[in-house]
Design brief:
The complex is a heterodimer of chains A (about 550) and B (about 130).
Chain A: H1 8-22, H2 27-49, E1 59-62, E2 73-76, H3 78-101, H4 104-127, H5 131-150, H6 155-186, H7 191-204, H8 212-227, H9 235-240, H10 245-271, H11 280-303, H12 307-327, H13 331-362, H14 373-376, H15 378-392, H16 398-413, H17 416-441, H18 465-483, H19 485-495, H20 503-510, H21 529-538
Antiparallel strand pairs in A: 1-2
Chain B: H1 2-20, H2 25-46, E1 51-54, E2 57-60, H3 77-108, H4 128-133
Antiparallel strand pairs in B: 1-2
Helix pairs in contact in B: 1-2, 2-3
The chains are: A mainly alpha (about 550), B mainly alpha (about 130).
């Protein structure tokens, strides 16, 4: 259905960026304006997302009124709406957190405008329906991230930023080259039109144009670089721990997931469409990449000493899960992927935010210098624990359902290698997180930040009111996401039901030019509570 | 024509990849710029011949203005629009990269890739948070 209001997801953050630039110098007004804009984006996500129904599965807007495939379309479907909503929760949490942890000098400079421009790029990537536009959205997002990475200008940041910028530039250039070549081969860059071409080729049994598979692999390179998939993840752990924690939380939650979203959106329907002639190679390397991402990243997490580095490695290992879910090419596996991606965004951001407070207070983030945090920082320790068990996937919390469903679908598809890699990674995630818990939160407090100076009665006292608000938002969202697993899983199932064959999406975007099949109005019900319990008993976490 | 362009693209890509392998950050930056030029040239090469052979006669394709040329006889405008957008973006990013290079040289006092590793240099603070504590 036509609805131009979905452009608000781009307009609102842009307005936020402009307003906060104009208010530069007045931090209080910037904060209020920023929160209002984020709140308005969240409200728009709820209002527009609730309009999606079996009768109106996709909301579309054509830029400038030009019809696709020639004009640019932006489209909001269940997947986009979910991810925009969750990204917004994370952004609000990180924004609150930044008020009390970011140094005033950094905040006075350009933190606020850059923050909103980053959100602009992320939202734009989620709603765009055109490959070249996705490139533009990535560039907006990356440009803001380049500037955020060097904000403050510490030596460690400066030395890592160059690597990050150069790698992403190479990725972007390969992206634009691939987009140009794809246009030369098939003559369109519209998602729906690409999906139509692939599904036409499948239904008639015709081969795809020569070179399509090469372009698929190039596309995989681009998205794997953004999403930190093996072997292209090496830049991520080096950069994330150099940034202020509110920014690295935002990066952890949003930037890598945008890459995974692009794979989820484009690979099942276009670039690795199962059953299409001549796309088998991509389908072969995706599972290998997923398995190696999980195993190697979790091994690195075991050996690292810096908590933020460990979390970055765990984040990468869990990107492997998401890619695993996509490679199965089954509707329920897509649902599990989306559900898990949502919870991963919230939990990872929350853990990174906790690290920010701990690092500020304890003065170190190394496991051998931390200790006794459970006694000295009980509030943060509680939140960290809640988020940690969410990440590990203890049954009442959200991490469990996505993982259980993923394993069930994996067993159903018979990919035993990846299923065992997933279980192994899940167990090692438990070990890694317990290692952090035992060494940093238990034991005696010997952190440099708690050392009482000579002649003083206590160490420096610092206030983290806003930071705790931010962390609480993620903790509450993560717990709520888990306890509301029945509606959230039902929604994820509904949103992803036809990612591999997007009939309704094509019909909404292309109208009469879509393949003959009409959109089905079938209502996909989620699992019942009973089924949920059955999985809970079968799963062995 | 397309073959000539493809050879140019291949050579520029090769040069830029050679520059990527350098230890000097300035050369890496140059490699990045050349890389994006090669990509743009590749898209132009992909967008088809500007000449068209109609019944033995070679003609120049017309400008893609609605109403002035027949369908199929004009140049495809979209790849050029793509490249224009991409050039503007890579121009901006190039500027940023050069500024970063200067700022980074002031901070790290080195233009060598090997000095970008922070594990070997414990005298560098691990992150910005601890910088402020100190």
């Amino acid at each position: 259905m036509h609805n131009d209001w979905i452009a608000l997801f781009v307009i609102l953050p842009l307005a936020g960026g402009i307003i906060t630039t104009a208010l530069c110098g007045n931090v209080v007004l910037q904060r209020i304006a920023g929160l209002l804009v984020l709140g308005a984006t969240g409200l728009t996500a709820v209002l527009l997302g609730s309009q999606l129904s079996p009768e109106v599965p996709v909301l579309v807007s054509f830029m400038g009124g030009w019809q696709p495939p020639y004009g640019i379309a932006i489209a909001l479907d269940g997947v986009s709406a979910t991810l925009i909503g969750i990204a917004n929760i994370v952004a609000i949490a990180a924004y609150f957190h930044s008020f009390s942890t970011l140094s005033p000098a950094m905040e006075r400079r350009w933190f606020h405008p850059l923050f909103h421009l980053l959100i602009l790029g992320v939202n734009f990537s989620f709603i765009t329906g055109d490959l070249f536009n996705l490139f533009v959205a990535f560039e907006i997002m990356l440009m803001a991230s380049y500037a955020l990475i060097v904000l403050g200008g510490g030596r460690a940041q400066m030395s890592q930023a160059y690597k990050y910028v150069v790698l992403n530039l190479v990725g972007s250039t390969v992206f634009v080259l691939t987009a140009g070549l794809l246009y030369g081969i098939v003559g369109t860059l519209n998602y729906a039109d690409l999906a139509r071409i692939v599904s036409d080729a499948k239904s008639t049994g015709a081969a795809l144009p020569t070179g399509f598979q090469t372009l698929s692999v190039m596309m995989l390179f681009v998205f794997a670089l953004k999403g930190a998939v093996f072997p292209l993840w090496f830049w991520l752990p080096d950069t994330y721990h150099t940034m202020p924690s509110s920014i690295s939380a935002l990066f952890a939650a949003l930037l890598s997931k945008v890459g995974v979203y692009a794979v989820l959106r484009l690979f099942p329907s276009v670039f690795a469409s199962p059953g299409a002639e001549g796309l088998t190679f991509v389908n072969q390397i995706l599972p290998i990449a997923a398995g190696l991402t999980m195993l190697i990243a979790i091994g690195c997490a075991l050996s690292a000493m810096n908590v933020r580095r460990i979390l970055a490695m765990v984040l990468i290992a869990h990107v492997g899960y998401l890619i695993f879910g996509i490679t199965l090419m089954r509707p329920m596996a897509f649902a599990a992927t989306l559900h898990y991606m949502g919870q991963e965004m919230i939990v990872m951001a929350g853990l990174m935010l906790c690290c920010g407070v701990i690092e500020k207070r304890a003065g170190s983030m190394r496991l051998d210098e931390l200790g006794g945090l459970a006694k000295s920082m009980p509030g943060v320790a509680t939140m960290f624990f809640v988020l940690m068990i969410g990440l590990i996937g203890v049954p009442p919390l959200a991490g469990f359902y996505g993982k259980a469903l993923l394993l069930r679908e994996g067993i159903g598809a018979g990919s035993w290698g990846l299923v065992s890699a997933t279980v192994f990674t899940a167990v090692l995630t438990l070990v890694v997180m317990l290692r952090i818990w035992v060494r940093a939160f238990w034991g005696e407090s010997n952190s440099p930040g708690f050392a009482v100076p000579e002649g003083a009665e206590a160490g420096p006292s610092l206030r983290y009111g806003f930071a705790m608000v931010g962390i609480s938002i993620t903790a509450v969202a993560s717990v709520g996401y888990g306890f509301a697993a029945e509606p959230t899983l039902a929604w994820a199932t509904y949103a992803t039901r036809e990612l591999d064959n997007p009939q309704e999406y094509m019909f909404a975007v292309l109208g009469d030019r879509a393949p003959a099949a009409q959109p089905t109005a079938a209502i996909h019900k989620g699992m019942t509570t009973h089924e949920m319990k059955t999985i809970a008993m079968e799963g062995d976490q | 024509m397309t073959v000539l362009l493809s050879i140019c693209v291949a050579v520029i890509f090769a040069v830029s990849v050679y520059l990527f392998t350098s230890r000097d950050l300035k050369s890496v930056a140059m490699g990045v710029f050349l890389f994006s030029h090669a990509a743009h040239l590749g898209i132009i090469a992909m967008s088809g011949q500007p000449l068209l052979t109609v019944s033995g006669e070679t003609i120049r394709k017309a400008a893609p203005i609605l109403g002035t040329s027949e369908a199929g006889l004009h140049v495809d405008p979209l790849p050029q629009a793509l490249i224009l957008t991409s050039i503007v973006i890579s121009f901006a990013v190039t500027g940023f990269l050069l500024a970063l290079l200067v700022a980074q040289h002031r901070r790290v006092q080195s233009m060598d890739v090997a000095d970008l590793r922070d594990e070997d240099r414990p005298e560098l603070p691990a992150s910005i948070e601890t910088v402020e504590m100190a």
